[in-house]
Amino acid sequence: MQKIIWSCGLALFCVATSLAAAVPPPSPPVATPKATNTSSVLAAAKQAGVLRVATEPDFPPLYWVDEQGKEQGFEYEMAQLLAQALGIPKVELVEDDYDKLPALAQEGKADIFMAGYVPDNAIEGVEWSDSYLDFGLCLIVPKGSPVKTIKQLKGKTIGAYDDPAALRWIDANIPDHGALKTYMGPGWLYHVDNREVDAAIYDYPLAVEEIKAFGRLQIAAFNLNESSYAVGFKAGNPDLQQALNAAIKTIEATDAYAALMKKYMPVTISNDVPEGSATYTIQPGDTLGKIAVAKLGTATAWKALWELNKNRVPNPNLLETGDILIMPNAAEKGTP
């Protein structure tokens, strides 16, 4: 009986072996091309018809809700313009603390974030648009102070918001300053108003709003450096980056953009100029480019005009009829 079982088993093994030999080996797996990213942030936002914008609440002049419950702010209206340019009909705000906004984009809880962010490569997992607001740090002093420029801060006590980038700039550009005191939270300019410090260094877009509460303070100089705010979004979305950059470029070229700056960041420019300076008074419809063509013969000379006046004017879009510009032949005298 065991011989029969063994014989049958051997026969079956032989048959199976023959069949296996007759069947050709399977073809190697074919590499399939990677699928295109059909679930990009931009595509998803367009499909949903909603651009989710992460922002910090109660952050004037960038974003806040007024006493009537109406949403206001430069970035709030800028977000509406961006959504319109991207072909997205609705904006939905996602509010959270400033330092938590990048994570909302990384985790897919927001499409973009805007809250006065200077592009920072140290924030992992996000990328940045081009600038939607160019600005600089400004010098804030009590009215009547002899301090007009940062050169006069030698040995002086300086106050600053606890922002690493601003603190680095102060140490690098005012190396002989006295004590440097840092503050956080709204109303910190009180320390300048109360003469606890001799001067303050602060972002212009924020200073222009917060200084309103302190009638004894003034901005002595603008654009101490060159900085900008940009839109942040989850890394790996080049289509969104390209679309945002195109939208920002288009928006910045419009009268609506200049009107937006004047609405939320107004400034009264001092018409005091160094004695003997050549000057020009802004006329209706003037821009730096038009003035450069008319007075200097080329539109590219607007940069020379800007260099002469940037410590007096926070942004070219804020020039008003009647403002006085220092003209190029007073270069040495017109620069603080």
From TrEMBL:
Residues 1-21 form the signal peptide. The keyword Cell wall biogenesis/degradation does not apply. It comes from the Bacteria. Keywords: Signal. The keyword tRNA processing does not apply. PROSITE patterns: LYSM. CDD domains: LysM (cd00118), PBP2_peptides_like (cd13530). Residues 278-327 form the LysM domain. Belongs to the bacterial solute-binding protein 3 family. This is LysM domain-containing protein. The lineage of its organism: Bacteria, Pseudomonadati, Pseudomonadota, Gammaproteobacteria, Thiotrichales.
